[in-house]
Design a protein that fits this description.
12 strands, alpha/beta, binds S-adenosylmethionine, 17 helices, four-stranded antiparallel sheet, eight-stranded mixed sheet, Alpha-Beta Plaits, 3 domains, Rossmann fold
Length: about 400
C-alpha cells in the first residue's frame, strides 16, 4: 500500500513537471527522487523506466481522458491500471501531439512516421572511445571485462553501440574515468563532416556542454577551438567535461557570449554551428517533447538558427550546421534561406554519401544535406549540412 502510494506520487510529480514546467525528464526525475528520498539503485532504475513510459504515453492518456481535466495523480493511477480503449486517430495511438503528427506525415509516409516514433521507445546508447585518456584497444578490452555487449561502428571506429550493459552506463568505471564518453552517433557524424585538418582554428558557436568540442580536440590534436555559448552555467559544465576528458586547457578558449554578435579580427578555418533547436530528434531521450513541443517554439528556433548561420558565414568559409530536429524548419528551410542571402555551396562529404539520408524531397537542397534517423541509423534524429562560402 505504502509503496504504491509513493509510486503514484512520484509518477504524478514527474509528469506534472515535464508537462507543465517543460523540464527535461532526466533532470526532473533526479530532483523528484532526491525530494522523495528514493535510495536504492534498483528502485530508481525501475521507477525511471516507468516514468519514461508514462511520459511517453501522456498524449495517449489525454486522448482516453477526453475533455475531462484530470489531475496528474489521476492520470498516473489510470496509466498504472492500463491506458484503456484508444480513439482511432493515429496521433493518439502513437501518443504524439496532433500538430506534430500532421507535420511529420507531410514529410514522410504514415508508415514511416509510425516506424520513426516507435523507434524512439528503445533507448539507443552510444559510447565514444576517448583516446585522449587511453588507447582504443585497451578501452575495448575494458568494456568487455565490464560485461558490456557492443558493436563498433564500421565507418566511425571510435563509436561503439551498446547492445546490453550489466548496469547503467554512468556506473561503468570506464565512463566514470572518461575513457569512454556517452555521446550519440549523430554527434560524431557532425564533427566528421567538418573534415578537420592539422592546426585548424575552429569556432564552435554553440558549444556547451562540450561533447563536440571535446571530440574536435580528440580528432585533431593540433586544432585550437574558440568555444562560445550563451549560458554561463553550461559553460561551467563544459569546462568540467573538457578537463575530465583530457583536453588541455590551452587547446580550447571558453567564451560566454551570444554568438549572433561575435566579431573576430580574422576568419577561422572552420565553424561548427550545432544550433539550439526543438530537440524533436531527441524524443528517445526526452519523450515529453511529443506532448509539449509547440509550432511557435519551432518558428523561434528557426529564426535564431538563420541568424547564427549568417553570422557563421562571416566567420569562416567552411561551416557545418546541425540540429537534433526532425523538422525542415530547423534544417532544409534555414539552409535555403541562407542560400538566398549568401553565395554558398552545400554538399555531403564523399565518405558519407550513401550513409546519410537525403533531406526532405520537397526542398531544392534535399540531395546536398544529410538526415539521420533512429529507425535507419540507430542514432538521434539529426539534420547536418556542410556549407562552403564560394
Ligand atoms: C544543442 S546545444 C549544443 C550542444 C553542444 N554542441 C555539444 O555537442 O555538447 C545548443 C547550445 O546553444 C546554446 N545557445 C543558444 N543560443 C545561443 C546563442 N545565441 N549563442 C551562443 N550559444 C547559444 C545553448 O546554451 C546550448 O548550450
Amino acid at each position: 500500500m505504502k509503496k504504491s502510494f509513493r509510486e503514484v506520487d512520484l509518477l504524478a510529480q514527474v509528469l506534472y513537471e515535464v508537462v507543465e514546467r517543460r523540464r527535461s525528464l532526466d533532470a526532473t526525475f533526479k530532483n523528484v527522487c532526491r525530494r522523495m528520498r528514493v535510495g536504492s539503485l534498483e528502485e530508481r532504475e525501475e521507477l525511471y523506466a516507468k516514468c519514461r513510459k508514462l511520459v511517453s504515453d501522456y498524449v495517449k492518456l489525454r486522448c482516453v481522458a477526453g475533455r475531462g481535466r484530470l489531475s496528474y495523480r489521476r492520470l498516473a493511477r489510470m496509466w498504472l491500471a492500463g491506458v484503456g480503449e484508444l480513439p482511432a486517430e493515429p496521433y493518439c495511438r502513437l501518443s504524439v501531439s496532433r500538430w506534430l503528427y500532421d507535420r511529420l506525415v507531410n514529410l514522410l509516409s504514415a508508415g514511416e512516421v509510425e516506424e520513426l516514433l516507435r523507434s524512439f521507445e528503445e533507448r539507443l546508447l552510444w559510447l565514444r572511445l576517448n583516446w585522449l585518456r587511453a588507447p582504443e584497444e585497451r578501452v575495448l578490452r575494458e568494456l568487455e571485462t565490464e560485461g558490456l555487449e557492443f558493436e563498433v561502428h564500421p565507418k566511425i571506429p571510435y563509436m561503439v553501440r551498446v547492445l546490453r550493459s550489466p548496469k547503467p552506463l554512468r556506473f561503468l568505471r570506464s565512463v566514470k574515468e572518461f575513457r569512454v564518453i556517452p555521446q550519440d552517433l549523430a554527434s560524431a557524424v557532425c564533427v566528421e563532416f567538418m573534415d578537420l585538418g592539422p592546426g585548424d582554428v575552429v569556432v564552435d558557436m554553440c558549444a556547451a556542454p562540450g561533447l563536440k568540442t571535446s571530440l574536435i580536440a580528440m580528432l585533431e590534436d593540433s586544432a585550437k577551438v574558440m568555444a562560445f555559448d550563451v549560458s554561463a552555467e553550461r559553460v561551467r559544465r563544459m569546462k568540467y567535461l573538457l578537463r575530465k576528458a583530457g583536453v588541455q586547457d590551452h587547446r580550447v578558449q571558453l567564451i560566454v557570449a551570444d554568438s549572433r554578435w561575435v566579431n573576430l579580427f580574422h576568419r577561422v578555418d572552420r565553424v561548427l554551428l550545432d544550433a539550439p533547436c526543438s530537440n524533436s530528434g531527441s524524443i528517445g531521450k526526452n519523450p515529453a517533447i511529443k506532448a509539449t513541443l509547440e509550432a511557435g517554439d519551432v518558428a523561434s528556433y528557426s529564426k535564431q538558427q538563420l541568424e547564427l548561420l549568417l553570422k557563421s558565414v562571416e566567420l569562416s568559409e567552411s561551416i557545418v550546421y546541425s540540429t537534433c530536429s526532425l523538422l525542415p524548419e530547423e534544417g532544409e528551410e534555414v539552409v535555403e534561406r541562407a542560400l538566398g542571402v549568401a553565395s554558398l555551396g552545400v554538399s555531403i562529404p564523399p565518405r558519407f554519401r550513401g550513409f546519410c539520408r537525403s533531406g526532405y524531397p520537397q526542398y531544392g537542397v534535399s540531395g546536398s544535406v544529410c538526415r539521420l534517423f533512429p529507425h535507419t541509423h540507430s542514432s538521434e534524429g539529426f539534420f547536418i549540412a556542410k556549407l562552403e562560402v564560394k
